[in-house]
Amino acid sequence: MRAFGRRHRIIITIVGSLLAVASLGFALAGRRDQFATALSGAPLAILGATVLLQIVALLSRSEAWHVTIEAAGGTVPRRILYRASSMQVLGSVINGNLGVAARIAALRRSSPEVSPQVPTLIASEFPILAIEAGLAALTSFTLVGPLGLPWWAPVIGIAVMATVSAGLRHLAARKGRELWRGLAVVRSLRGGGRVFCFVLVAVFAQIFRNWMLLHAVGLDASLFDAVAVLIGVVTLGQLPVGPSLGAAAAVLILGSHGVAGAAAAGVLMTVTGTVGGLCFAAWAALDGVWVAHRRRVRRTQRAQATT
Predict the structure, then answer these.
(1) Which of 151, 153, 87 is nearest to 121 (CA)?
(2) Which 3 state secondary structure label does DSSP give 238?
(3) Number of structural domains the chain divides into
(4) Which residue from 47, 60, 154, 266 could staple onto 250, CB 3.0 to 4.6 Å apart?
(5) 36 domain-assigned
(6) Which structural domain range is residue 210 located in?
(7) What pLDDT, in 10s, does the model give residues 210-225?
(8) Is residue 33 one of the residues assigned to a domain?
(9) Is 186 within 8 Å of 123 (Cβ atoms)?
(10) What does each C-alpha distance from 300 to 67, 201, 306, 307 come to in angstroms?
């Protein structure tokens, strides 16, 4: 099944996206006017602020990745790593895991001499993912009410993440294999603390972004609701639901507050997140062009000087 999924990833994503859109269309049947009103009622200032928050989240997570790669022995300049990190935006439109693969491939292609090997780069994602999953487990109580989960479900999640964290620390102590080198940042209290802080900034930027958009469409949502939506987005992001991810997660978590408003907030989450990501990718493309231009100018100047 994994081999089938790898070979037909795009087809599966298209089918999953169509099914998700059809389900949302069914849920919004008879609520078209409410949906349109909620969607058009969001102030432009709020939309602009949420785009900026998305850029902050992307930059903070990129910096966390830079710290883990640096600890693993990579000497990639921050500027090059940020350009490679921007490629995740394009891949994540299809699937979150594909986005990670896209930025790893972009980094290896652009700087193979100073970047670690692919196994190390893959492992360098684990500390970041572990922190994000740990924060999700600690705040999973926000899902108890919306999803009707038993009260002890968050306790199990916290216990599982504590076990995973202990396992990562144990693996980080191993040396001699490229894979374990990616966990080197876990060995250092300073390095691990820096990664945690950058991931925390990225997560809080996403939470405040969700909270602002939920209020912009008229939903009386709390910060806990915004946290629950973020957990829903990350969880559903593992499924091939495509661009309908934000709306699907918002309706799943906050549909009881109003399906039309929740769907509108989810659509705006997707749109503003995509715009913020495209701004990051546009900077990376322009920066790459500028650096290539400067190199050509320097080569021309050296050639003229020698003649």
Answers:
(1) 87
(2) coil
(3) 1
(4) 266
(5) no
(6) 2-27+44-306
(7) 999 999 998 888 999 9
(8) no
(9) no
(10) 36, 43, 10, 11
